[in-house]
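Human:
Class, as today's exercise, you are to examine the entry below, and be ready to discuss the fold:
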Amino acid sequence: QDPWANAYNPKYIPPSSVKKYDRQLGRGGWVWTRNFELDSVAYFFNFLWNYHQTPGLWQPGSLLLEPLVHDAVVTMLRLLEVEQHHQQRSPYRYSELQREGLGPPCGYTGMVWSAFRASDDPQTYSYNIPDNMYLWGSLARLLKINAATWEDSYISATAQKLMVDLHDGITKHGIVEVQPGVRMYAYEVDGLGNKLVDFDDPNLPSLLALPLLGYDVYDQQVYST
C-alpha cells in the first residue's frame, strides 16, 4: 500500500475501473485518497499507543508483535526522514499541487513536510506547526512501545533524532515575532521566511489544542500569546 495515502479502500478496486481524474490523483487499488497529511502518521503511532495502554483489550502485545505492524512503523519512519528533505528526496507528487505536483517552494527546517491539513485543505506553506508538534508527541509514545515490544535499534535511533529535529525546527522557524517583543507560534511556515499567523484549524491538531498534543516541550508564554 502507498504510505503517503491518507485513506484506504476496504476492498481492492482495479485502477482500470476508476475515472481518469481519480487515477491522476493516485486513487484506485487499495488507495481511497492520496492526500499526504502528516497528522495521519501521528494518529497511526498514537493508535498503537492507545491500544497498548488500554486496559481490558485482548492481548495488545500480540497485535504489536505482528510483523506487518512493525514493518508499517519502519516504513512510516523512513517516509518521515524522506519528507524532512521533500524537495531533494521525495517521490511524492499530487497533481493538484503547484510546481507539477511537488508543492510550494520550501527550505529545510528539520520539520516534516506535508501537503494537506487535518481538515483536508491544502496547506499554504509546507510545514504545519501543530502537525509537527503532534508528531513529536506520537514519537515519544512510539519510543515507549519500542522499548516494551520490538526493541528495534533503528526505531529507537530514528524516533529520537526526529524528535530533536522537530523541536529545533519548531523553535527556530515556528516561533515568530508578530509585534515588537511579541512572539507566537505560527500555524504554517515554509523555511524561507514566509509564515501563516492569523489562522488556526478547527480540527485537531491545532494551535489552540497544543497542550493536548503530547508536545511537552512547548513554550507556555509563546502559547499564551
